[in-house]
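Hi support team,

I submitted a single chain yesterday and got back a structure, but I'm not sure I'm reading the token output correctly. Could someone confirm the output below corresponds to the sequence I sent? I've pasted both exactly as they appear in my results page.

Thanks,
R.
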Amino acid sequence: MTPFTEAQLRASFVNTSQRERAGIVLPGAAGGPGALAELRWDDLDYLGWRDRRQPQLGYVVADVDGDPVGVLLRQAEASARSRPQCSWCDDVTLPNDVVFFGAKRGGRAGRNGDTVGALVCDEFQCSANVRKLPPLAYPGFDRDAARLQRIEGLRMHVRAFALAIRDSA
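Hi R., thanks for writing in. Yes, this is the structure output for that exact sequence:
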């Protein structure tokens, strides 16, 4: 993923007000100034994080043709009756929980109450999940090719989600 600056990240959010954008607590390994520089951008297919002050909120920034597209997400209060599969990384052996996030669309559609939702790893661990070598499915199965295919699939899913939010105006 392309490394983005704090200013680029804040400006990228397509479904927030200016006040919401200014209040976003940005991620980082150290949580302080310069923390974005500590992120391992090459290991990310998108940047996703939860708000430490408001845990029901999540933020996702996708790289769409070299430009960041940010989306504010809200976790649904209800939980699934059975273990769901993440719709982004498609991992069936997840070591983490999957929750339903909803996001209002950008522009007029969002102001009219239109939303889009997705089942996503609760702490946005998808990039790590798709990089794990998959189990041997059958003799001769190309595990490295399968991993690359999963990485590309994740990028396509997240990009499509971000575009569905952004391009709804």
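A quick pointer for reading it: Helices lie at 6-12, 18-22, 35-38, 107-111, 126-131, 143-166. Let us know if anything else looks off.

Best,
Support desk
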